Amino acid sequence: MYLKDPNDKETLEKVRALLAGLPADQKKYFRVIDRAKMDAVGANPVAVMALSGENGGSFNGSMKGKR
């Protein structure tokens, strides 16, 4: 995930809280990857966090639902 301002800790914490507050039946489909884990594998240094699909979950460019 990229932020317009990579130093915007307030927005990052809001996103983390939104993800953490999802019901377990939704959270089981993704894993949050923090900056430390991203650094360990040489990920893009501009991204502040990442999501990885789990239990058959995946991400793509399509969108369904409310905009």
Concise synopsis of the structure shown:
The protein is an alpha+beta fold and 67 residues long. The protein has helices at 9-20, 24-27, 35-40; strands spanning 30-33, 50-53.
Detailed description of the structure:
It contains 3 helices and 2 strands. It has 67 residues and is α+β, with helices and mostly antiparallel strands. The chain has a domain at 9-53. It starts with 8 loop residues before the first helix and ends in a 14-residue tail after the last strand. The model has no long low-confidence stretch (mean pLDDT 92).
How would the blueprint of this fold be written?
Elements: H1 9-20, H2 24-27, E1 30-33, H3 35-40, E2 50-53
Gyration radius, in Å = 13 Å
The assembly state of the depicted protein chains is: single chain
Binned, the helix content reads 25-40%
Beta-strand percentage range: 5-15%
Anisotropy-based shape: globular
Distance between the ends: 19 Å
Helix count?
A: 3
